[in-house]
Every structure is written in C-alpha cells, then in structure tokens.
Amino acid sequence: MPKFPIVAAVIFMIGLAAPENIPENHCQEAGTGVLLTRSAFAHGYRHGYEAGYHEGNIDINMARPARTSFKQFKGLSQGYETSFGPKKSFSAGFELGLKAGYGDGYAGRVFRAVDEMRAVAGSLKEGPDKGDANNIYFDRGVSLGYKDGFAQGHSRGPSAATATSVDSVKCVYTGKASEAPGETSYCDGYRRGFVLGHTDGLVMGPGTGPLEASK
C-alpha cells in the first residue's frame, strides 16, 4: 500500500489537531443559529459565555480565587471573524457573555446559554426585516435590550422565580424619524435581548458571584 511521506503525514496530523482549523459552527447551531447570524452582539455573547464557563470551571477545580476583573482574562481569544458582523458589537456581547459564563462555571451552575438563547430565538425568521437589510437595527436592539433586561433582573435578584417572556416585553423606539423603517426590526431584537439579559440579571443578582463590580 502507498504510504504518505513522514513529513507530509506529520503536517496532516498537525492540521487536524490545530484548534484554529476547527470551523466556527455556532451559526449552524440548532435553535440559536438564526439569532447568532442576525446579531453580532448575540454571537459574541455566545462565544464569551462558552469561554467564561470554561475558565470558571478550571479556576474552581484548581481551587483558585475567583477572578474579579476583565483584565485577568487578558489574552483570551474572542474568536471573532469579519463575517460575524461589527466587531464592536461582537466584543460588547463577548464581554457580557464572559461575565455570565464565568460566574456560572465558577459557581458550578449548569451551562445554560444554549437553552436560553434557543428560548429567545423562538419564531425568529432567518432573513433580515424590511428596512434593515444588514440587521443593524436588530443587532442594536438585542444589545440595548440585554442591558435593560439585565438591569431589571439584577435589581430583583435570584429570589425571583422566572424571567419575563419575549411577547411581554414593551419596546419604545426613540430613534430618529428617518430610521422609522428599522423600528420593527429594532424592537424584535430588543425584546429578545431583554429576556436574555433579564435572565442573567436574575441569576447574577447583587453579591452572587465574581466580576460583580468589574467594568
């Protein structure tokens, strides 16, 4: 039987093992892919949560003190690619996902990001809305909704039983008149982001975990 030259075989095996050669597959993830495709913020959150959960698990299993600052994650790759959308939005989502994931991983809570993102992505259509061809308004809505939802959930704390539902979230668009075509898309994103943030806020109530006071 023909044999690969030794050097070629080694290169082939290294190529299989190299992490950077593993394709990004979050956008094909069942139930959440449509949300991650349309929102760079949500996609960044997904990357950040996964990375944070992993780091939190390592730290608690190694009996290390919990990290309290994002500076302590220096060098952690975000895994960003230009096809994901605006890097600024992706990075903002990554930082918030990192915070949520690290807290869950360090506290020994379940990895909840996928199930919760599936819940907020329910009934979301794959293509962009009319008037928002590049999902700019939708992504902005997810980002601002998350922050508002987190603030409300965080103030209630972990004693609250459940988060709100997407359909029950009120959205008041305050954009310019010229941006009116994007209002529907913005509010669709806002409601979904609000629920995701609200859930995180409930879980990460005041004094419940690391990175609490970090910015």
| Main beta-sheet strand count, sense and barrel state | none
The mean pLDDT is 84
Number of domains: 1
Instruction: Provide the β-strand percentage band.
Output: under 5%
Residues in helices, as a percent range: 40-55%
Shape: globular
Structural class: mainly alpha
Count of beta strands: 0
User: Uncertain runs with pLDDT below 50, 5 residues or more?
Assistant: 1-23
- H/E series: HHHHHHH
Distance, first to last CA: 61 Å
* Contiguous helical run count: 7
**Gyration radius, rounded:** 19 Å
Can you walk through the features of this model?
By secondary structure, this protein is mostly helical. The protein has one domain. Helices cover 52% and strands 0% of the residues. It contains 7 helices and no strands. Helix 3 (40-61) packs parallel to helix 4, helix 5 (113-121) runs antiparallel to helix 7 (183-203) and helix 6 runs parallel beside helix 7 (183-203). The longest helix is centred in the first third of the chain and has 22 residues, at 40-61. The termini are far apart. Residues 1-23 have low confidence and may be disordered.
Question: Summarize this, please?
Answer:
This protein is mainly alpha-helical and 215 residues long. It has helices at 6-17, 33-38, 40-61, 87-107, 113-121, 136-156, 183-203.
Note the main attributes of this structure.
disordered N terminus; 215 residues; globular; mainly alpha; 0% strand; single chain
